[in-house]
Amino acid sequence: METFAYVRAGSLAEAAEAFATHPGARYLGGGTNLVDLMKLGVERPTALVDVTRLPLDEVTELPDGSLRIGALVRNSDLAAHPRVRDRYPVLSQAVLAGASGQLRNAATTGGNLLQRTRCPYFQDVSKPCNKREPGSGCAARDGVHRDHAVLGYSEHCIATHPSDMAVALAALDAEVELYGTAGVRRVAAAEFHRLPGEEPERDTVIEPGELVTAVLLPAATAGLPSAYRKARDRASYAFALASVAVVLEVADGVVARVGIAFGALSHRPWRARRAEEALLGAAPTRAAFERAAELELSEARPLRDNAYKVPLAHNLAVDVLTRLVPHEPGPDGPPPHEPGSREEDS
Amino acid sequence: MTAVGASAERREGREKVTGTARYAAEQPLPGRLFARPVPAAIVRGRVTDIDDTAALALPGVVTVLTHRNAPRLASADDATLAVLQDPEVPNRGWFVALVVADSPEAARAGAAAVRVTCVEDKHDVTLTATHPQAYVPEKINGMFPGVRELGDPDGAFADADVRVDVGYQVPPLHNHPMEPHASTAHWDGERLTVHTSSQGTTAVRAVLGTMFGLADERITVVAEHVGGGFGSKGTPRPDVVLAAMAAWHTGRPVTVVLPRRVLPTSVGHRASTLHRLRLGADSDGRLTSLVHEVTTYTSRIKEFVEYAGMPARIMYAAPNLRSRHHVVRLDVPTPSWMRAPGEAPGMYALESALDELAEALGMDPVEVRVRNEPDAEPDSGKPFSSRHLVECLREGARRFGWSDRDPRPRTRSAGPLLLGTGVAAATYPVQVYPSRAAARALPDGSFLVEVNAADIGTGARTVLAQAAADALQAPLERVRIHVGNSDLPPAPLAGGSSGTASWGWAVHDACTRLAAQLAEHQGPLPDEGLEARADTKGAADAESPFARHAFGAHFAEVSVDTVTGEVRVRRLLGVYAAGRILNPRTARSQFVGGMTMGLGMALTEGSTLDPAFGDFTESDLAAYHVPAHADVPDIEAHWIHEDDPHLNPLGGKGIGEIGIVGTAAALGNAVHHATGVRFRELPLTPDRVLTGLLETPRHPVPAG
Q1: A264, B73, B357, B586: which is deepest, by most CB within 10 A?
Q2: Are residues B506 and B556 in the same domain?
Q3: Count of domains in chain A?
């Protein structure tokens, strides 16, 4: 790790100014990913602008029924917040599915969005990586890539975004609030992260110096049935092999509103628009869910060693969608089973 | 009541949990420097230039050692220790420079700033069962024959009523002790003192003595507390050599802590193994032929062979038997000891194949094992000193509720979860080596016992004090014990599950002698007390007329999620016959720890040798998945009473490794029972399991 300047910002304006006056600066939140990357030599900031003292650590209920999550709300506090648990269970579940208790206590909402891929080639400065060093090549493409993308990748980068939280935000139609010298703007959470395309070094649409100040959870998805499910190598903590966040409203026997986002399949949380379109207005049957998942995943282009992600994502989506349907046995088969039920020899 | 056999509390427990126990890197010597190695970023070749200008210009960087300026060392037997001696790079991650600085941060920055230029040769790091360079080693690691054959295994296999011919794969595995390899060295004139994280400092002293040309009395090696080793600290590793070199070069104390990410390429690992098992049996389930062929790799600079064919030589009564090892020299980091080397992967394959045989025979897998119980060790013909495998299987089956099991695969489910149970046997050889010890009675009524044992978290200190108390017929609290310092009476390493037996024998002898002296002694003790010494050379290493092994049985229950392919453990139960259990509390920890490591081997721990880059893709603890609490369920360790007079005065067989042996097979067999699919490559991660479930035609789950 190299020597760097340290500035503690007392206000947003101070933070932006410090960032502007230190070329090569980085904002510091919980530091759970940034500091690791500095130790690895992947990040080499000249200055850290510590934003953790800014007054952005509140969860606020807004008059229109939406919820504003300050960018510095810790992951543990976000997951445990009663309003979040009641109205946006998918978000609480997603946050708790990520990292370990110790990391969630330190990690912030804004930092969670801005964490970098865990691609092993990105993390190893002795190997090529277009994301870390544009133009150096992608070692994962022909290398070890069981964990990598099956959707939306480019010839330059096949990395996946590691966040669980961001997947739930994408499904919830959340927005990310950004503060910059040009003022405040909002970006849909599902559009906040980019596909790699020609510029794999850019993970998000954030502009230099912009700071995530909040995440807004809309009133429109508050209280709707929602759930997150993640498949992983290790029960205690591990990055997703694939995950899905679903928000589903059924009214009058048809799908009235649906948000589906996949995690660990792409460079960003993958909002399954085609599947959603197919389901809107349709009867919420298992067969319809199967068809929708198939439609969405027909775009997938698995690599040599990650073809398993396609059926895995398919199964996860169908499983969570089926579970979220209010219980009435449909014509397509028996009611869905409760995961984790202990009755045996069923 | 004797002290041995009681659940005495771990002696250093309070120091450890309160953070006052000092480890090798925690030696705050005045003027201390910190050094960080620079790993080679090529697979095979040589260094042509090292530019340290930028590194030396950084604040805090004191010096950069390379093969050009590092002290010349004499050659040790172990080529992996010849660091910074020449420009050759035998594998990726080989250390080509060492940056010495006044803080760990400056050393890290300096290491990143060293520019190394290399020429790279073509490399090969890919193991295949048909690799053209594979050879059969005459002796494995200087100890065992590479191949053993009895009767006509091929003919008997061809004639067998029931045949199983299957292959298994175990990936590279990493020891990853909690405390990384670390050493602090300082010189006082030509006297060297080293604090190092080691499983045995007598051996470290010997190696440093050879390399630096110093007599034993000019070197002290201390390993007071060691945060685990699992074999990777059995012999000295490059950190201790680098620390001693840098301290010599700078004239100041130097600490080297190997970063977690370099451990996989620099301290040894378990090499991957490819297994082919051929089992032939008659229709009653008696083995007529057993063939276990193992293919593994070693590095170009050192031959280490994972002797996974060994268990086939002792487990079952097959009249026709072959176990053979094939090894390929590749451009890989040198593999080395890891908990139950040989037995862990070997018994995974053998015990999985036995399960396949039971299925082919339509027999219960416990009964197949019982039916093939040998009267004597198959390979040597020696009688067993004691063998209670059948009792372990029976006791485990009773505790586990095995008799209720429906043997048909894929018959139990709970919602989307398929449930299954499996069993596997375990074995580990009894090993014991000569040791010395001293015991002193002091005028205040206390006793001081000295032996250069290593307590790597096992409770060695505690158990040896118990052994001493009994031999002295003194209360346990009056016995003090000193271990972990090469100035103490020399002793073998904590490895091969041999430590307690080896050290305990010497402690027992010394204390027994002291007790006899005290019985004769008249009047008060002199100020310096009364001392007795013991050396078990000639006794501990005497050839035994018996085959001596510990045995055990593992039972497992798993769930397999048909949605995700996730395998989760519901129950894991081990029953062991390992001689006398000296301290149930610390013994239980060892068994449970071994089983947990076996669980990791079965389900979560996977490492990949990158064909292009020659190192391991999973190089940190976020990617190399060691099981943690949520992965380790209801786990039980039991043992049966075993009184074996042919071992050592304490009567224990060694328990540090047997817990990992067979655990992966029990879990794999349970996954087969749950799913009806036979997975033959570890670990059983969702990518493999889900794919297997989808590729295998689905049997209907019976209702009710």
Answers
A1: A264
A2: no
A3: 2
**A39 interaction partners in chain B (CB closer than 8 Å):** 108
B275: in domain:
yes
Q: Is the Cβ pair B691, A308 closer than 8 Å?
A: yes
Interface residue A126 vs chain B (CB under 8 A):
yes
Question: Which pLDDT tens digit goes with each residue over B200-220?
Answer: 999 999 999 999 999 999 999
Average pLDDT (B529-542) is 98
DSSP assignment letter at B310: G
CB pairs under 8 A between A and B: 119
**How many domains are there within chain B?**
3
CATH number at residue A277: 3.30.390.50
Alpha-carbon separation of residue B698 from A341, B203, B212, B411, B676 (angstroms): 22, 56, 65, 12, 9
Q: How confident is the model at residue A345 (pLDDT cuts 50, 70, 90)?
A: very low
Contact A120, A144 (CB under 8 A): yes
CB nearest B416 (choices: A239, A337, A344): A337
- Say yes or no to pLDDT of B704 above 60: no
**Range with the poorest average pLDDT among B217-226, B544-553, B688-697:** B688-697
pLDDT at A256: 98
Q: State the catalytic residues of B.
A: 657
**Residues 596-655, chain B: which have Cβ within 8 Å of A?**
604, 606, 608, 610-613, 617-620, 622-623, 625, 627-631
pLDDT in tens, B124-147: 999 999 999 999 999 998 899 999
User: b/e string for A266-293 if b means 16 or more Cβ within 10 A?
Assistant: bbbbbbbeebbebbeebebbbebbbbbb
- Say yes or no: B214 and B277 in one domain: no
| CB < 8 Å to B401, chain A | none
> pLDDT digits over A205-253, tens only?
999 989 999 999 999 999 999 999 999 999 999 999 999 999 999 999 9
Boundary of a domain, candidates B232, B266, B300: B266
Query: B672 and B553 in one domain?
Result: yes
Using the 3D structure, point to which of B509, B534, B559 is the last residue of a domain: B534
B33-39 β-sheet, strand order = B61-66, B95-101, B33-39, B254-257, B182-188, B191-196, B219-222
Q: CB contact, 8 Å: B563 with chain A?
A: yes
| A281 interface with B at CB cutoff 8 Å | no
User: Does A206 reside within a domain?
Assistant: no
CATH assignment of the domain containing B655:
3.30.365.10
All residues at 6 or more sequence positions from B30 whose CB lies less than 8 Å from its CB, including other chains = B253
Residues in B closer than 8 angstroms to A290, CB to CB, are none
Cα A56 from Cα A109, distance rounded (Å): 10
A253: in domain: yes
Tens-place pLDDT, residues B290-316: 999 999 999 999 999 999 999 999 999
pLDDT at residue A341, as a whole number: 39
Residues 156-195 of A with CB under 8 A from B: none
For position B554, what pLDDT does the model report?
98
Using CA coordinates, name the residue in chain A closest to B563.
A315
Q: Does residue A98 fall inside a structural domain?
A: no
Alpha-carbon gap, residue B301 to B329, rounded angstroms: 9
Distance of alpha carbon B331 from alpha carbon B17, whole angstroms: 42
Taking contacts as CB-CB distances below 8 angstroms, the residues of chain B near A239 are 622
pLDDT at residue B606 in the model: 95
Structure tokens at A8: 């503690």
**Predicted local distance difference test score (pLDDT) of residue B79:** 97
pLDDT score, position B288: 98
Contact B690 A236 (CB under 8 A): no
Gap from A99 CA to chain B (nearest CA, Å): 9
Instruction: Say if B542 is an interface residue toward chain A (CB within 8 Å).
Output: no
Q: Domain range holding A282?
A: 226-324
Bridge partners, B140 (sequence order): B144
Is A257 part of any domain? yes
ipTM score of complex: 0.95
Report if residue B18 sits inside a domain. no
Q: What is the residue range of B85's domain?
A: 33-122+176-266
